[in-house]
């Protein structure tokens, strides 16, 4: 049966989302419906869909509430191809803006809003750039998959980084090499990770570190989407990988330039080990009403 719903469209550094409030978890968001919403010719057009649902009202929310009973809201995230992802770093900032603007949640400056995700609870705060997200713990994956992409003359070793969702980061030598990539083709990974991966191509700034802040430029091919103007978890993975390659004296603060703008990434000590924070803008650009078949 067709249903009519209110939606908002938003983006974080050009990574764009359709946001739908479904507090009681009654909407059946099938892969077909997600693909229809994200279609840029026949739908609204977006890199993903975010459903705002109370953690108590969906199965994945139970783990979030067990981790933090204050995580009332869950970010139910879908890629444009209809697949489910664990986490979205740009999406969670846009989601915080959506929740607060629709008065589903309050977030006074200085306060923290815990949000449930499939990768665990993430704490969000307002910042001068927009929103800052504690992305929690991360890990380098073993092995170095070889990565090839259109217009890359020779396959390069990638570094697997898990920041709640899977990434493979590849270092390129300069801007010309980065600009030449044709990411309308899916990069080929050998071996191919079982759950797939988002692939980030990075080049160092010149110089890499200026005034104590690391600088990189990045393009990304997102799992379940294709090339996007930005990927928040990807910027975090790229900064972590670059620090790893740069060695012990590398900084903990990074600026990451993407096609859709700029975000900052900070690694900092926490009680359970090192965490990483992502800071960047979040904008809601229009609201509307849609009918889903
Ligand atoms: N654009 C997002 C990441 C969305 C999920 C990703 N495509 C995946 O499948 O893991 C971000 O900003 O982090």
UniProtKB/TrEMBL annotation:
Pathway: Amino-acid biosynthesis; L-lysine biosynthesis via DAP pathway; DL-2,6-diaminopimelate from LL-2,6-diaminopimelate: step 1/1. It comes from the Bacteria. Keywords: Amino-acid biosynthesis, Cytoplasm, Isomerase, Lysine biosynthesis. It is found in: Cytoplasm. Substrate binds at residues 15, 79, 89-90, 165, 198, 222-223, 232-233. GO terms for molecular function: diaminopimelate epimerase activity. InterPro entries: DAP_epimerase_AS, DAP_epimerase_DapF. Belongs to the diaminopimelate epimerase family. Homodimer. Catalyzes the stereoinversion of LL-2,6-diaminopimelate (L,L-DAP) to meso-diaminopimelate (meso-DAP), a precursor of L-lysine and an essential component of the bacterial peptidoglycan. NCBIfam families: DapF (TIGR00652). HAMAP family: DAP_epimerase. This is Diaminopimelate epimerase. The gene is dapF.
């Amino acid at each position: 049966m067709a249903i009519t719903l209110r939606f908002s469209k938003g983006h974080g550094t050009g990574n764009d989302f359709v946001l739908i409030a479904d507090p009681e978890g009654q909407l059946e968001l099938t892969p077909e419906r997600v693909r229809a919403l994200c279609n840029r010719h026949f739908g609204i057009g977006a890199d993903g869909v975010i459903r705002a649902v109370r953690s108590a009202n969906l199965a994945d929310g139970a783990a979030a509430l067990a981790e933090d009973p204050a995580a009332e809201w869950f970010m139910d995230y879908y890629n444009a191809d209809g697949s489910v992802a664990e986490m979205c770093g740009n999406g969670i900032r846009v989601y915080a803006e959506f929740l607060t603007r629709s008065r589903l949640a309050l977030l006074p400056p200085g306060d923290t809003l815990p949000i449930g995700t499939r990768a665990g609870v993430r704490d969000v705060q307002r910042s001068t750039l927009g929103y800052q997200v504690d992305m929690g713990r991360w890990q380098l994956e073993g092995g170095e998959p070889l990565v090839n992409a259109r217009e890359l003359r020779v396959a390069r070793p990638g570094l697997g980084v898990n920041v709640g969702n899977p990434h493979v980061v590849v270092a390129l030598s300069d801007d010309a090499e980065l600009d030449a990539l044709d990411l309308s083709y899916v990069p080929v990974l050998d071996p191919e990770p079982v759950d797939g991966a988002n692939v980030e191509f990075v080049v160092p700034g010149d110089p890499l570190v200026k005034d104590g802040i690391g600088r990189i430029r990045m393009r990304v091919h997102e799992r379940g989407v294709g090339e996007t103007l930005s990927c928040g978890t990807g910027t975090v993975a790229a900064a972590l990988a670059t620090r790893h390659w740069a060695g012990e004296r590398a900084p903990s603060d990074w600026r990451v330039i993407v096609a859709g703008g700029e975000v900052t990434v900070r690694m900092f000590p926490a009680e359970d080990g090192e965490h990483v924070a992502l800071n960047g803008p979040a904008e809601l650009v229009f609201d509307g009403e849609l009918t889903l078949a």
